[in-house]
Amino acid sequence: METFQALLTQKLAEALTAADLPQAGAVTPATDARFGDYQTNAALVLAKQLGQDPRALAQKIVDHLAVSEWCDPPTIAGAGFINLTLRTATIAAQTAGLLRDEGLGVEKAATPKRIVIDFGSPNVAKPMHVGHIRSTVLGDALARIASFLGHDVIRDNHIGDWGTQFGMVIYGWKNLLDRAALERDPIAELVRIYKGANDRATADSAVREACREELVKLQAGDAENFAIWTECVALSLREFEVAYKILDIHYDIQRGESFYNDRLAGVVERLLKSGLAEISEGAVCVFFRDIPELADKPCIIRKSDGGYNYATTDIATVDYRINDLKADTVWIVTGAPQQLHFRQIFEIAWREGYRADFRHITHGSILGDDRKLMKTRSGENVALRDVLEEAIGRARKIVDEKNPDLPEAERQAVAKIIGIGAVKYADLSQYRMTDYIFSWDRMLSFQGNTAPYLQNAYVRIRSIFRKAGEEFVPAKELVLVAPEERNLATRLCQFGEIVPTVLNDFRPNVLANYLFELANSFHAFYEACPVLKSTEPARSSRLALCELTARILHRGLDLLGIAVPEKM
Ligand code: ARG
Fold first, then answer.
1. In a domain? residue 397
2. Which atom of ligand 1 is nearest to the CA of 338?
3. Confidence of residue 378 (pLDDT cuts 50, 70, 90)
4. How does 521-545 read in b/e, with b if 16+ C-beta sit within 10 Å?
5. Which CATH number covers residue 523?
6. Do 160 and 256 touch, CB atoms closer than 8 A?
7. Does the model's pTM come out above 0.85?
8. Residues with CB under 6 A from ligand 1
9. Residue to substitute in 124, 126, 158 for testing ligand 1 pocket (most ligand atoms within 8 angstroms of CB)
10. Atom 11 of ligand 1 has which residue's CA nearest to it?
11. I need a labelling partner for 486 at 20 to 30 A (CA). Which of 201, 327, 361, 562 fits?
């Protein structure tokens, strides 16, 4: 289904051609409803380009703008904006069309891509902490949206399972392990032995050397160390799985760092041979002498002790994704501190001739009340599972209060939907680069731009239908009389415009804000317009608006990875 924005953009392009003007400007939703539904700044852009009077240009464009089938006559405002107001009948017809459209107005991408998305990607033998929410939840939302738009998406968990931490972990395993503790809480015990080994190594160079030897043995394929490593990875994965299950996250493939281990020597050889890498102070490096900001930041791909590193692995990863997985698009979601790393990796990939749309999608941090990185009272990272458990516990209290009649099992299920939804939405409704303060009270509030507010809007609509006790029959025609009806319908028609734009700069918050505004428009409509008590044809038409609002809230939240309850 073509959106109004796409239609009007097309008409603008035709008008510019007919008026012998170059293509310029865009059609966007009106910033102020008093001026109409859409506007274009084309005349202003052209005036600058051509050095002509903007209002005269606007008039010339309007003279050629053939939109009378859908709009009232266009008007010119201010310095040369062209304002477009849809005819109410046009909106009604489009909205009725949405009822029959499975995509709810969202068109599939014209050129589907094969996208590998690398997100979450936690490190083995370390606990998942609250900071992992961002990459995991952001990546999941982007993957859902890309799939919905018809792209072929491969979700890859690039777990950190081959780092230098294993020297310490294996030393700790052999010298410090408490088996009973490992049974009880594997990750806590792995962290404890890692820290213990680290402390000893710092104090004692012999231990430091011993740890290094354990790592070398592992990398050389020593059977005992390999078995320990395998067990550590399995224990960590089990822990990750618990979190993924609660968060409803899935991956298509899991190619951790270790997967690339036997390709690393080849990477270095290849880059040396092609002359892109050189030996410098015993290490193998790629220099970027022609890029001023990277001129003094070479990328080391083999350390002077012969070891490979994070960068070597990521260069091997580029090759695998393009040549084996046949990706034409690669998205990597991590915190902002890895910007330099991926700048270098993409630059190397480009120099080697790998052609794909590489994007590093970065995000900010989650802060505590003190505006510093969120930590426990004792200064540790806050464990992810603690956060998730607390979210569900707090939501449970709210459900107990609000709906004590709900059966026990249902209450627990609803609490999970609300609690996890709140945590995810608090993250996704922020611009990804913004650092935000983690606040239970705010995210669990039923007022404001929160998941519970949106879920509640959905639940209210479901209860209208339960009260009606009738099957929903889509109205053939909508009648939009009250301004609140027109406003709600216009918003419903914008879902198809909003969803694709999320991927322009990877901003799920654009979708979140849209859903918030949709819920607001719905509440305004519901205040002003009786639904079940109204007479035909208003009644069917209003029920259709309710149904569509529910469908779009449901679908929109689903694209953010958030579920909706039927009651709450
Ligand atoms: N394991 C890394 C971390 O925790 C993230 C990996 C991101 N992906 C990659 N291909 N390097 O920071």
1. no
2. 12
3. confident
4. bbebbbeebebeeeeeebbbbbbbb
5. 1.10.730.10
6. yes
7. yes
8. 118, 121-123, 158, 160, 314, 317, 332, 334
9. 158
10. 314
11. 562
